[in-house]
Each structure stands twice: as structure tokens, then as C-alpha cells.
Design goal:
Elements lengths: L19 E4 L9 H16 L3 E6 L9 H13 L6 E5 L4 H13 L3 E4 L3 H13 L23 E4 L6 E6 L3 E6 L7 E3 L7 H11 L4 E5 L6 H10 L6 E5 L2 E2 L15 H6 L4 H9 L13 H7 L10 E2 L2 H14 L2 H15 L9 H8 L6 H7 L12 H7 L5 H12 L6 H15 L3 H13 L7 H8 L1 H22 L1
Parallel strand pairs: 1-2, 2-3, 9-10, 11-12
Antiparallel strand pairs: 4-5, 5-8, 6-7
Helix pairs in contact: 1-9, 5-6, 8-10, 11-12, 11-13, 15-16, 15-19, 16-17, 16-18, 17-18, 17-19
The chain binds one RNA strand of 76 nucleotides through helix 4, strand 7, helix 5, strand 12 and helix 10.
RNA sequence: GCUCCCUUCGUCUAGCGGUCCAGGACGCGGCCCUCUCAAGGCUGAAACACGGGUUCGAGUCCCGUAGGGAGCGCCA
């Protein structure tokens, strides 16, 4: 399947080649926020240029790679709607091909067997460190012709000794590495399995990747990979190295920063479009614009506008964007997602207001869907007890009269709609010569159990007449009982 | 230690030699609106890491310094 996409003659003029980018995570964990940003940029670049976006799973490390992690990555990309045109390809399914290329390099004298033991290599490194030199392989097996009994050799790439490699990076600009700084890296282990830097090159060549967009922790690998491309007679792709993403405190991202897996953002009530918008502005900008629809991102994205420095995640800004999309989004669709959160909370929403209406009522007062669900449970379940502070302030003896009148007025309404409810509440306030707050707040605490809710008329409409009146009675009872005990 | 990368408000960023006593956004403060909480409107505080050059003129170009980061594996 992979083979059909292969060509051994990648020598078309670059301008005539269709842009092809790839995202190549190693499945050793979930899709974290940094990986997601890299995937987003690769995807945007391909979409902007009408090219292809390829997904490749780099699972050559059999020890640490798991099928669960592969699934987690696929789930994360699906949630962010980063659709791949090809793949996922798995490196573990391409071992024959890697072996073939290793042999080719061996045959051409561009690679050689190295019989040094791990112990010898360690000692060599220790000595170099002691001499304050950069630890690297010294090439002692370069000209060896005889095998060493009892040692399974590794295969090393014969890196050029002189000259330099110039990387014309799309975000970093021109970066020059001297070949003398590089050493002969291992391309095949003693058990015959290929290593990362080698597989990447073979894959990018075979899959005809034109633009490698990845984290800048790979910048130092780039000259080695370019040398391998050349040894293979292939034109290296173009490169763009993205700056890292840091935690809110400016330190390297880790679990202690909370949500690191993109799917955790869903659990926390974030919308994929918000996460995407947040991510695209992390390290990239288009003037002063903050909000980007998918179409705009694709149209405006330019790798040249990517920043050079690492950026820290700002949870507040993500929350702001999330609320923006909650306010702008389709209530019907958001309602479904809200329902997903209620389900996770074990709240049955079948006997309450429509989820889309709850979204409409709360869009301006919730940063996340999770928060919205938590704040709206009272629409679907009776609360155990009143929020203490709100009850102490609003459920006092002086609230009995307004609540009683409210009950009567509301019970008499012909139509249970917000405008009529609004009028009824106002009428009670006027009749009693009270400020609206003196009436609406006790009512709010009575029906919601707490001091915060959407506008009172809308809250009542959504709750329904029966439950509303029931809860008003309950509140009156609560006041009476409480007062009786205290006096 | 060596090589490479990075450095504008707390944070994300605009700026591509003069239009910058540095603009926008999040957050924060104040005011307005208001049945709660929000949302919204107006408004305020807040930054060119440092030192040398180049230039009539530097946040913008060059070189250092300092501070961060990455790589240097039979990990990816």
C-alpha cells in the first residue's frame, strides 16, 4: 500500500512538485499540545498550498510504542479535525525497505560495520568529556575490513569529514553546520533494526515529502539527515523548525501543568475550534488578528510568519477563545457536546429543558462547556441544599412575602414564557415597593439553590412551571423552619 | 564541555531603518450598564535583556555579554 506512493526518482523540479507535508509522531503517549500544534502547522501548510498531508507513525522503538498511544494520537487529530490525505503509515511495517537501503549504502561504501562494544563507546565518550570535547564517535571502525569475533556489528553512516551543510530553514533562516562537528551515526543496530534518523530520511524520500515541518529540537538532526539524503542520491526536502511550547510558568511542558493531552481539553470543556485557534496563534500571527476561522487560517497561513522563540501557554486566553466560540457557535451542536458532559457527570437530561436552550441561556456566562454543565445541573436535578452564603443572604423572613406573591402570580400565568414571567416578577416588586433585586434574588436562590444563574425569567422558563413553584414552596418552608429554630 | 537556536508589556504578539514618547489581544485596575453572574462599552497601568558598533537616524542591521533552550544514545 505504501509502495504505490513510492518513487525512486524524486528529481522533479521543486516548483513543479505538489507540496507534501507529514506529521510523524512516535506513539509513546497521548497527542500532547506541542505535537498538536506541529500537526496543525503541517496540515495548514499542505492545505494552503493545495498539497497533501501525510500521517506517519514512528514506532521503531518497540519498547515504548503502544497501540493505545497510536489510538490516542488518531483520536486527538480527529477531534481537532486534522484530516490526513495519506496514512497512517507505520515504520514497523517498512523494515524490509530500511534493510534494503542499509545494504545499498553498505554496498556503495557509504556505510560500514562498526564492532565497537557499548563499553568501549562509553569509555570513549567519558574520555572526550574529560578533555572537554564534544562526545562523538571517532571513526575507529571506518577502515576495518575484518569482523570481530563474538560481536554483532552495528552499521554506521559514513558522514563527510569536511565541508559544511547549509540548512535553509523556512523559519530560522540559514543555519550552517560544519561536517567535522558531526560523527558517523548508527543507522542499524546490532540486531539489524534501523534507527530514527535513518528511517526518517528513507520515509521522507520514499513518501516524497517536500516540506518537513517539525519541532526545533530536531534542528540539530537536520544536517545529518541531509547528508544521508545526499548519500542516497535524493534531493533533501525543505525544512521549517518550529519553536517549542512551554507551560504557563515558562518551564518545559509536563504533566504537572494540567492538561497536556489534547483530549484532556475536551474533558475540560473546550471546543476543538477554540483549541485550534489558540494553537495557531502560538508562534504564528497575521497582524493583529486573533480570531481565525478554519478557512481564514488556511488562506492566511504562511510559514514565514512563524516566530523564532518558544512560547508559553496562556490558559486564560484559551478560555477566552473558548467562550468566544461558545457564544458564536450553533446552540444545537454545542448542546450535543454539553450533553456529553452531563453524561460524564451522570446527569440525566431527558426530563428537563432542551440542551440547546441551556446553551443559549449560558453562553455568555461560561468559559467552558464543563463549567456550563456543572452550573446547570439544577435544571435537571433537585439540589440537596442551598448554597450557604446565598441562602443566608436571600432566604430570610423578609423574603417570605415576595416569594408567596411570586408563587401566586406565577401560578396564575396563562403562558409560561420569559416575557410573561418577567412581568410577573416585576409586578410583585412594584406591589411591594421593593427593588427588583429584593425579589429576583430570593427567587433565584429558591429555584437554583444558589446566587448565580441566567436571567431569572429565562431560568424559570427553562425550569418549567411545576418545578419552579415546587421549589418556591420549598424555599418558603426552609425559611420558616430556619426562623423557628433560631428563635 | 562542545555545537546549534532563542531574547518587545505578566503572557501571546505587531513591528520587516524614520510613520514607535512602541500597536493589538488575554489577564489585571477603574467607570458605565445591570435581577445574580457574566457579556458588552469606555478607560488605566504595563515591554524593545545589556554593552558596543554601522547609519543623518536602530526595537528594526552587525559584533559581543548575560540569560534561557535544544542536541551531542545501539531513544524518537
Amino acid at each position: 500500500m505504501v509502495e504505490s506512493a513510492l518513487s525512486r526518482t524524486p528529481h522533479f523540479p521543486r516548483q513543479l512538485m505538489k507540496v507534501r507535508t507529514r506529521f510523524a509522531p512516535s506513539p509513546t503517549g497521548y497527542l500532547h499540545i506541542g505535537g498538536a500544534r506541529t500537526a496543525l502547522f503541517c496540515w495548514l501548510y499542505a492545505r494552503h498550498h493545495g498539497g497533501d498531508f501525510v500521517l506517519r507513525i514512528e514506532d521503531t522503538d518497540r519498547e515504548r510504542s503502544t497501540p493505545e498511544a497510536v489510538q490516542a494520537i488518531l483520536d486527538g487529530m480527529a477531534w481537532l479535525q486534522l484530516d490526513a490525505d495519506e496514512g497512517p503509515f507505520y515504520q514497523t511495517q517498512r523494515f524490509d525497505r530500511y534493510r534494503e537501503v542499509v545494504q545499498q549504502l553498505l554496498d556503495e561504501g557509504k556505510a560500514y560495520h562498526c564492532y565497537c562494544t557499548r563499553e568501549e563507546l562509553e569509555e570513549m565518550r567519558a574520555q572526550q568529556m574529560a578533555r572537554k570535547e564534544k562526545p562523538r564517535y571517532d571513526g575507529r571502525c571506518r577502515s576495518r575490513t575484518e569482523p570481530r569475533p563474538g560481536v554483532d556489528p552495528v552499521v554506521r553512516f559514513r558522514n563527510p569529514l569536511e565541508g559544511e551543510v547549509v540548512v535553509k530553514d523556512h523559519v530560522r533562516g540559514t543555519v550552517v553546520f560544519r561536517n567535522e562537528e558531526l560523527d558517523d551515526l548508527i543507522i542499524a543496530r546490532s540486531d539489524g533494526t534501523p534507527t530514527y534518523n535513518f528511517c526518517v530520511v528513507v520515509d521522507d524520500m520514499d513518501m516524497q515529502i517536500t516540506h518537513v515541518i517539525r519541532g526545533d529540537d530536531h534542528l540539530n538532526n537536520t544536517p545529518r539527515q541531509i547528508n544521508i539524503f545526499r548519500a542516497l542520491g535524493a534531493e533533501p526536502p525543505e525544512f521549517a523548525h518550529l519553536p517549542m511550547i512551554l507551560g504557563p510558568d515558562g518551564a518545559k511542558l509536563s504533566k504537572r501543568h494540567g492538561a497536556v493531552s489534547v483530549m484532556e481539553y475536551r474533558n475540560d470543556g473546550f471546543l476543538p475550534e477554540a483549541v485550534r485557534n489558540y494553537l495557531v496563534r502560538l508562534g504564528w500571527s497575521h497582524g493583529d488578528q486573533e480570531i481565525f476561522s478554519t478557512e481564514e487560517m488556511i488562506r492566511l497561513f504562511d510559514i514565514a510568519d512563524v516566530n523564532h522563540s518558544a512560547s508559553a501557554i496562556n490558559p486564560d486566553k484559551l478560555a477566552w477563545l473558548n467562550q468566544h466560540y461558545i457564544k458564536e457557535g450553533d446552540p444545537q451542536r454545542l448542546g450535543e457536546e454539553l450533553g456529553w458532559h452531563f453524561e460524564r457527570m451522570g446527569v440525566d437530561t431527558s426530563n428537563g429543558p432542551a440542551l440547546a436552550d441551556v446553551v443559549r441561556a449560558n453562553a455568555e456566562r461560561a468559559k467552558t462547556l464543563k463549567e456550563m454543565a456543572e452550573n446547570s445541573v439544577f435544571f435537571y436535578q433537585d439540589f440537596e441544599e442551598y448554597e450557604e452564603k446565598a441562602a443566608r443572604k436571600n432566604l430570610q423572613p423578609d423574603a417570605v412575602e415576595p416569594l408567596t406573591r411570586l408563587k401566586e402570580g406565577l401560578a396564575a400565568l396563562e403562558e409560561w414564557k420569559a416575557p410573561a414571567i418577567h412581568d410577573a416578577v416585576n409586578a410583585v416588586a412594584e406591589a411591594l415597593e421593593l427593588k427588583l433585586g429584593k425579589v429576583a434574588q430570593p427567587l433565584r436562590v429558591a429555584v437554583a439553590g444558589k446566587g448565580v444563574s441566567p436571567p431569572i425569567d429565562i431560568t424559570l422558563e427553562l425550569l418549567g412551571r411545576e418545578k419552579s413553584i415546587e421549589r418556591i414552596e420549598r424555599a418558603i418552608g426552609h425559611i420558616v423552619q430556619h426562623t423557628a429554630y433560631e428563635h
